[in-house]
Amino acid sequence: MMDKAGYGKTKPVLVRILAAAVGLLVLFSASGCTKNTDGGGEVSAKAGQYEIYYTDAEGDRLLHETYKPASENFEGILKEVLTRFSLSPKEGLLSTVPEGVKINSSTIGISEIDVDFSSGYLSLSKVQELLLRSALVETLVQLPGVDKVRFTVEGQPLTIDDQEIGVMNKDSFIVPDQDAINSYRTMEIPLYFSDLSGDHLVREYRKIYYSSNLNTERVCAEQIVKGPNEDSLLPVTGTSVIILGARVRGDTCLIDFSKTVGDLPAADSPVKPEAALYAFVNSICEACRDDGVTGVRFTIEGSSDERFRGQVNLDQTFYPDNDIVVEEKAGAGGAGVLVDGNGANAGEQEATEGGTDLP
User: In total, how many domains does the chain have?
Assistant: First the structure.
Protein backbone atom coordinates (compact mmCIF):
# COMPACT_ATOMS: atom_id res chain seq x y z
CA MET A 1 0.00 0.00 0.00
CA MET A 2 1.25 3.45 -0.88
CA ASP A 3 1.50 6.14 1.78
CA LYS A 4 0.94 9.87 1.32
CA ALA A 5 4.45 10.40 -0.01
CA GLY A 6 3.72 7.96 -2.80
CA TYR A 7 6.15 5.12 -2.19
CA GLY A 8 5.86 1.70 -0.65
CA LYS A 9 8.41 -0.63 0.85
CA THR A 10 11.90 -0.72 -0.50
CA LYS A 11 12.49 -3.51 -2.98
CA PRO A 12 14.08 -6.65 -1.48
CA VAL A 13 17.41 -7.05 -3.24
CA LEU A 14 20.32 -9.24 -2.29
CA VAL A 15 22.76 -6.40 -1.72
CA ARG A 16 20.36 -4.43 0.46
CA ILE A 17 21.30 -6.28 3.64
CA LEU A 18 24.99 -5.69 3.07
CA ALA A 19 24.47 -2.02 2.18
CA ALA A 20 22.22 -1.43 5.16
CA ALA A 21 24.73 -3.06 7.47
CA VAL A 22 27.52 -0.91 6.10
CA GLY A 23 25.32 2.16 6.44
CA LEU A 24 24.49 1.37 10.05
CA LEU A 25 28.13 0.75 10.87
CA VAL A 26 29.06 4.14 9.50
CA LEU A 27 26.04 5.84 11.08
CA PHE A 28 26.62 4.65 14.62
CA SER A 29 30.38 4.30 14.83
CA ALA A 30 31.86 6.96 12.57
CA SER A 31 33.10 10.17 14.11
CA GLY A 32 33.33 11.97 10.78
CA CYS A 33 30.85 14.24 9.04
CA THR A 34 28.55 13.98 6.07
CA LYS A 35 29.24 16.74 3.61
CA ASN A 36 26.63 19.41 3.01
CA THR A 37 27.57 20.90 -0.32
CA ASP A 38 25.45 24.03 -0.20
CA GLY A 39 28.09 26.13 1.49
CA GLY A 40 26.38 25.84 4.87
CA GLY A 41 29.09 23.87 6.64
CA GLU A 42 28.91 20.16 7.40
CA VAL A 43 26.08 18.00 8.64
CA SER A 44 27.12 15.78 11.50
CA ALA A 45 26.43 12.12 10.72
CA LYS A 46 26.85 11.36 14.41
CA ALA A 47 24.06 13.78 15.27
CA GLY A 48 21.90 12.16 12.60
CA GLN A 49 20.94 15.44 10.96
CA TYR A 50 20.44 15.86 7.22
CA GLU A 51 19.67 18.74 4.91
CA ILE A 52 16.49 18.13 2.90
CA TYR A 53 16.45 20.15 -0.33
CA TYR A 54 13.38 22.01 -1.57
CA THR A 55 12.65 24.91 -3.90
CA ASP A 56 11.76 28.47 -3.00
CA ALA A 57 8.22 29.77 -3.50
CA GLU A 58 9.03 30.75 -7.11
CA GLY A 59 10.29 27.26 -7.86
CA ASP A 60 13.54 28.31 -9.47
CA ARG A 61 16.26 27.76 -6.85
CA LEU A 62 17.20 25.21 -4.20
CA LEU A 63 16.95 25.82 -0.46
CA HIS A 64 17.36 23.37 2.38
CA GLU A 65 16.10 22.65 5.87
CA THR A 66 17.73 20.53 8.56
CA TYR A 67 15.88 17.36 9.53
CA LYS A 68 16.67 14.72 12.15
CA PRO A 69 14.99 11.34 11.50
CA ALA A 70 13.57 9.45 14.46
CA SER A 71 14.57 6.07 13.02
CA GLU A 72 17.74 4.35 14.12
CA ASN A 73 18.22 2.02 11.16
CA PHE A 74 19.25 2.82 7.62
CA GLU A 75 16.04 1.79 5.88
CA GLY A 76 13.96 3.71 8.37
CA ILE A 77 16.08 6.82 7.91
CA LEU A 78 15.82 6.53 4.13
CA LYS A 79 12.03 6.20 4.29
CA GLU A 80 11.74 9.21 6.60
CA VAL A 81 14.02 11.32 4.41
CA LEU A 82 12.06 10.44 1.26
CA THR A 83 8.77 11.17 3.02
CA ARG A 84 10.07 14.53 4.19
CA PHE A 85 11.47 15.24 0.73
CA SER A 86 8.06 14.61 -0.85
CA LEU A 87 6.22 17.10 1.39
CA SER A 88 6.42 20.89 1.60
CA PRO A 89 7.51 21.55 5.21
CA LYS A 90 6.49 25.18 5.58
CA GLU A 91 5.62 28.37 3.76
CA GLY A 92 8.40 29.38 1.40
CA LEU A 93 9.75 25.84 1.01
CA LEU A 94 8.15 23.66 -1.65
CA SER A 95 8.78 20.00 -2.36
CA THR A 96 10.32 19.39 -5.75
CA VAL A 97 7.91 16.46 -6.17
CA PRO A 98 4.79 18.09 -7.65
CA GLU A 99 1.21 16.86 -7.76
CA GLY A 100 0.89 13.96 -10.19
CA VAL A 101 4.36 12.58 -9.44
CA LYS A 102 5.03 9.89 -6.83
CA ILE A 103 8.04 7.99 -5.59
CA ASN A 104 7.13 4.35 -6.26
CA SER A 105 10.02 2.71 -4.44
CA SER A 106 13.66 2.95 -3.43
CA THR A 107 16.27 0.21 -3.76
CA ILE A 108 19.45 0.19 -1.71
CA GLY A 109 22.60 -1.03 -3.46
CA ILE A 110 26.28 -0.87 -2.66
CA SER A 111 27.02 2.87 -2.27
CA GLU A 112 23.96 3.58 -4.44
CA ILE A 113 20.25 4.26 -4.03
CA ASP A 114 17.87 3.69 -6.94
CA VAL A 115 14.67 5.73 -6.81
CA ASP A 116 11.74 4.81 -9.04
CA PHE A 117 9.12 7.42 -9.95
CA SER A 118 5.63 7.22 -11.37
CA SER A 119 5.04 8.00 -15.04
CA GLY A 120 4.08 11.57 -14.13
CA TYR A 121 7.80 12.31 -13.88
CA LEU A 122 7.99 12.34 -17.68
CA SER A 123 5.53 15.24 -17.82
CA LEU A 124 7.71 17.59 -15.76
CA SER A 125 8.99 20.76 -17.36
CA LYS A 126 12.74 21.05 -17.95
CA VAL A 127 13.20 23.28 -14.92
CA GLN A 128 11.05 21.07 -12.67
CA GLU A 129 12.93 17.96 -13.73
CA LEU A 130 16.34 19.49 -13.10
CA LEU A 131 15.26 20.81 -9.72
CA LEU A 132 13.85 17.47 -8.61
CA ARG A 133 16.87 15.54 -9.80
CA SER A 134 19.41 17.87 -8.23
CA ALA A 135 17.49 18.22 -4.95
CA LEU A 136 17.07 14.47 -4.47
CA VAL A 137 20.69 13.64 -5.22
CA GLU A 138 21.94 16.40 -2.95
CA THR A 139 19.68 15.08 -0.19
CA LEU A 140 20.48 11.38 -0.51
CA VAL A 141 24.26 11.55 -0.89
CA GLN A 142 24.40 12.78 2.71
CA LEU A 143 23.25 9.36 3.93
CA PRO A 144 26.11 7.20 5.24
CA GLY A 145 27.73 5.10 2.55
CA VAL A 146 25.68 6.63 -0.29
CA ASP A 147 27.70 8.08 -3.19
CA LYS A 148 25.33 7.72 -6.14
CA VAL A 149 21.66 7.96 -7.03
CA ARG A 150 19.98 6.33 -10.01
CA PHE A 151 16.61 7.48 -11.37
CA THR A 152 14.06 5.19 -13.00
CA VAL A 153 10.49 5.76 -14.14
CA GLU A 154 8.09 2.83 -13.77
CA GLY A 155 11.10 0.53 -13.56
CA GLN A 156 12.82 1.85 -16.69
CA PRO A 157 16.02 3.97 -16.74
CA LEU A 158 15.32 7.70 -16.86
CA THR A 159 15.84 8.84 -20.44
CA ILE A 160 15.75 12.45 -21.63
CA ASP A 161 15.89 13.24 -25.34
CA ASP A 162 16.84 9.62 -26.07
CA GLN A 163 19.80 9.80 -23.70
CA GLU A 164 19.90 7.64 -20.57
CA ILE A 165 20.79 9.77 -17.58
CA GLY A 166 22.54 7.04 -15.60
CA VAL A 167 23.81 7.33 -12.03
CA MET A 168 24.31 10.77 -10.55
CA ASN A 169 26.73 11.86 -7.86
CA LYS A 170 27.75 15.17 -6.32
CA ASP A 171 30.37 16.18 -8.86
CA SER A 172 28.75 17.42 -12.01
CA PHE A 173 25.82 19.68 -11.33
CA ILE A 174 27.11 23.09 -10.31
CA VAL A 175 24.85 25.77 -8.85
CA PRO A 176 26.38 28.91 -7.32
CA ASP A 177 24.89 29.78 -3.95
CA GLN A 178 21.41 31.34 -4.28
CA ASP A 179 21.53 31.06 -8.07
CA ALA A 180 18.33 30.35 -9.97
CA ILE A 181 18.16 27.14 -11.95
CA ASN A 182 16.13 28.34 -14.91
CA SER A 183 19.13 28.96 -17.15
CA TYR A 184 21.43 25.97 -17.42
CA ARG A 185 23.89 24.47 -19.80
CA THR A 186 25.19 20.96 -20.16
CA MET A 187 28.58 19.98 -21.46
CA GLU A 188 30.80 16.94 -21.57
CA ILE A 189 34.10 18.56 -20.76
CA PRO A 190 37.56 17.07 -21.34
CA LEU A 191 39.67 17.09 -18.19
CA TYR A 192 43.32 16.09 -18.01
CA PHE A 193 44.97 14.43 -15.03
CA SER A 194 48.33 12.82 -14.43
CA ASP A 195 49.11 9.19 -15.09
CA LEU A 196 50.79 7.20 -12.34
CA SER A 197 54.25 8.18 -13.53
CA GLY A 198 53.58 11.87 -13.00
CA ASP A 199 55.08 12.67 -16.41
CA HIS A 200 52.09 12.37 -18.74
CA LEU A 201 48.45 13.38 -18.91
CA VAL A 202 45.36 11.30 -19.53
CA ARG A 203 42.07 12.74 -20.71
CA GLU A 204 38.92 11.99 -18.75
CA TYR A 205 35.49 13.16 -19.90
CA ARG A 206 33.02 14.48 -17.37
CA LYS A 207 29.42 15.48 -18.02
CA ILE A 208 28.55 18.70 -16.23
CA TYR A 209 25.33 20.60 -15.68
CA TYR A 210 26.15 24.17 -14.75
CA SER A 211 24.60 27.58 -14.36
CA SER A 212 24.76 29.93 -17.32
CA ASN A 213 26.20 32.47 -14.86
CA LEU A 214 29.42 30.44 -14.72
CA ASN A 215 31.98 30.49 -17.49
CA THR A 216 33.39 27.30 -18.93
CA GLU A 217 37.02 28.05 -18.08
CA ARG A 218 36.18 28.35 -14.39
CA VAL A 219 34.14 25.14 -14.47
CA CYS A 220 37.10 23.32 -16.06
CA ALA A 221 39.63 24.68 -13.59
CA GLU A 222 37.50 23.87 -10.56
CA GLN A 223 36.78 20.35 -11.80
CA ILE A 224 40.51 19.71 -12.23
CA VAL A 225 41.07 20.82 -8.64
CA LYS A 226 38.45 18.30 -7.49
CA GLY A 227 40.58 15.54 -8.98
CA PRO A 228 39.96 12.56 -11.27
CA ASN A 229 37.15 10.03 -11.04
CA GLU A 230 39.41 7.21 -12.23
CA ASP A 231 41.53 5.44 -9.61
CA SER A 232 44.28 4.96 -12.19
CA LEU A 233 44.81 8.74 -12.48
CA LEU A 234 46.45 11.22 -10.11
CA PRO A 235 45.30 14.71 -9.10
CA VAL A 236 47.58 17.55 -10.18
CA THR A 237 46.72 19.87 -7.26
CA GLY A 238 45.43 19.56 -3.76
CA THR A 239 41.72 20.09 -3.19
CA SER A 240 42.42 23.17 -1.05
CA VAL A 241 43.34 25.19 -4.16
CA ILE A 242 40.92 28.04 -4.88
CA ILE A 243 40.38 29.45 -8.36
CA LEU A 244 40.48 33.15 -7.52
CA GLY A 245 39.87 34.29 -11.09
CA ALA A 246 39.02 32.78 -14.46
CA ARG A 247 38.33 34.91 -17.53
CA VAL A 248 39.18 35.26 -21.19
CA ARG A 249 40.99 38.19 -22.73
CA GLY A 250 41.21 37.93 -26.49
CA ASP A 251 42.36 34.39 -27.28
CA THR A 252 43.98 33.82 -23.88
CA CYS A 253 42.44 32.48 -20.70
CA LEU A 254 43.70 34.02 -17.46
CA ILE A 255 43.65 31.78 -14.39
CA ASP A 256 44.52 33.08 -10.92
CA PHE A 257 45.25 30.47 -8.22
CA SER A 258 45.48 30.68 -4.46
CA LYS A 259 48.91 30.12 -2.90
CA THR A 260 48.13 26.49 -2.15
CA VAL A 261 48.54 25.59 -5.83
CA GLY A 262 52.28 25.50 -5.14
CA ASP A 263 51.85 22.53 -2.81
CA LEU A 264 51.98 18.96 -4.08
CA PRO A 265 48.66 17.05 -4.04
CA ALA A 266 50.32 14.64 -1.60
CA ALA A 267 53.73 14.41 0.02
CA ASP A 268 54.68 11.46 -2.19
CA SER A 269 53.05 12.75 -5.38
CA PRO A 270 55.18 12.12 -8.49
CA VAL A 271 53.32 14.73 -10.56
CA LYS A 272 55.77 17.03 -12.33
CA PRO A 273 55.11 20.79 -12.30
CA GLU A 274 54.83 20.87 -16.11
CA ALA A 275 52.24 18.09 -16.09
CA ALA A 276 50.20 19.95 -13.47
CA LEU A 277 50.10 23.17 -15.50
CA TYR A 278 49.38 21.49 -18.81
CA ALA A 279 46.44 19.65 -17.21
CA PHE A 280 44.80 23.07 -16.96
CA VAL A 281 46.08 24.30 -20.32
CA ASN A 282 44.94 21.31 -22.35
CA SER A 283 41.58 21.08 -20.58
CA ILE A 284 40.68 24.75 -20.89
CA CYS A 285 41.86 25.21 -24.47
CA GLU A 286 39.97 22.13 -25.61
CA ALA A 287 36.76 22.99 -23.75
CA CYS A 288 36.85 26.64 -24.84
CA ARG A 289 38.00 26.04 -28.42
CA ASP A 290 34.75 27.39 -29.86
CA ASP A 291 35.30 30.61 -27.92
CA GLY A 292 38.64 31.09 -29.66
CA VAL A 293 40.84 30.27 -26.66
CA THR A 294 44.28 29.12 -27.77
CA GLY A 295 46.46 29.70 -24.71
CA VAL A 296 46.45 30.11 -20.92
CA ARG A 297 48.34 32.42 -18.59
CA PHE A 298 48.64 31.76 -14.87
CA THR A 299 49.06 33.93 -11.80
CA ILE A 300 49.25 33.05 -8.13
CA GLU A 301 47.25 35.53 -6.08
CA GLY A 302 47.68 38.07 -8.86
CA SER A 303 51.40 37.61 -9.46
CA SER A 304 53.32 35.77 -12.18
CA ASP A 305 56.73 36.60 -10.72
CA GLU A 306 57.34 33.36 -8.84
CA ARG A 307 58.14 30.00 -10.37
CA PHE A 308 55.45 27.34 -10.15
CA ARG A 309 56.57 24.84 -7.54
CA GLY A 310 59.99 26.41 -7.76
CA GLN A 311 60.62 25.31 -11.35
CA VAL A 312 58.33 26.70 -14.07
CA ASN A 313 58.32 30.36 -15.06
CA LEU A 314 54.72 31.57 -15.04
CA ASP A 315 55.37 34.81 -16.92
CA GLN A 316 54.46 33.33 -20.29
CA THR A 317 51.53 32.06 -22.30
CA PHE A 318 51.12 28.28 -22.28
CA TYR A 319 49.73 26.50 -25.34
CA PRO A 320 48.33 22.96 -25.51
CA ASP A 321 50.88 20.16 -25.56
CA ASN A 322 49.59 17.01 -27.22
CA ASP A 323 52.89 15.18 -26.80
CA ILE A 324 52.36 14.98 -23.05
CA VAL A 325 49.05 13.13 -23.51
CA VAL A 326 48.78 9.35 -23.51
CA GLU A 327 45.61 7.19 -23.38
CA GLU A 328 42.24 8.63 -22.48
CA LYS A 329 39.48 7.53 -20.14
CA ALA A 330 35.78 7.60 -20.94
CA GLY A 331 34.98 9.02 -17.51
CA ALA A 332 31.90 8.59 -15.36
CA GLY A 333 29.50 9.76 -18.04
CA GLY A 334 26.31 9.97 -15.97
CA ALA A 335 25.39 13.27 -14.42
CA GLY A 336 25.77 14.11 -10.76
CA VAL A 337 25.00 16.96 -8.46
CA LEU A 338 27.06 19.58 -6.72
CA VAL A 339 25.43 22.59 -5.16
CA ASP A 340 28.46 24.82 -4.79
CA GLY A 341 28.32 27.80 -2.46
CA ASN A 342 31.83 28.82 -3.51
CA GLY A 343 30.98 29.34 -7.16
CA ALA A 344 32.11 32.16 -9.37
CA ASN A 345 31.05 35.77 -8.87
CA ALA A 346 29.42 36.10 -12.25
CA GLY A 347 29.54 39.88 -12.26
CA GLU A 348 33.32 39.92 -12.03
CA GLN A 349 33.92 37.59 -14.97
CA GLU A 350 33.78 37.82 -18.68
CA ALA A 351 31.22 35.19 -19.63
CA THR A 352 32.77 32.96 -22.25
CA GLU A 353 30.44 30.04 -21.98
CA GLY A 354 30.76 26.73 -23.76
CA GLY A 355 28.45 23.79 -24.19
CA THR A 356 24.86 23.78 -25.33
CA ASP A 357 21.71 24.95 -23.65
CA LEU A 358 19.80 22.22 -21.88
CA PRO A 359 17.01 20.84 -24.01
Answer: 2
Spatial separation of the C-alpha atoms in residues 198 and 273, rounded to whole Å: 9
Q: Does residue 107 sit in the same domain as residue 43?
A: yes
**What are the Cα distances from residue 237, in Å, to 7, 223, 228, 229, 299?**
43, 11, 11, 14, 15
Same domain, 238 and 138: no
248 compared with 327, residue with greater pLDDT: 248
Distance CA 107, CA 89 (A): 25
Give domain status of residue 168, yes or no: no
Final residue of a domain: which of 159, 183, 209? 159
Q: Count Cβ atoms within 10 A of the Cβ of residue 59 and give its class: 0-12 exposed, 13-18 middle, 19 or more buried.
A: middle
Nearest to 248 by CA among 219, 227, 278: 219
258-264, long-range: CB within 8 Å, 24+ apart, which pairs?
258/300, 258/301, 259/300, 259/301, 261/237, 261/300, 261/308, 262/300, 262/306, 262/308, 262/309, 262/310, 263/237, 263/238, 264/238, 264/309
Establish if 98 belongs to a structural domain. Answer: yes
Residue 9 lies in a domain: no
Predicted pLDDT of residue 320: 97
Judge if 295 and 236 occupy the same domain. Answer: yes
Same domain, 141 and 290: no
pLDDT digits (tens, 9 = 90+) for 22-50: 333 333 333 232 333 333 333 334 478 99
pLDDT tens, 325-338?
997 655 444 333 33
pLDDT tens string 257-289: 999 999 999 999 999 999 999 999 999 999 999
CA distance 225 to 243: 9
What is the residue range of 280's domain? 173-353
* Cβ neighbours of 114 (radius 10 Å): 20
DSSP SS3 for 51: strand
In this structure, the answer to whether residues 331 and 206 fall within a common structural domain is yes
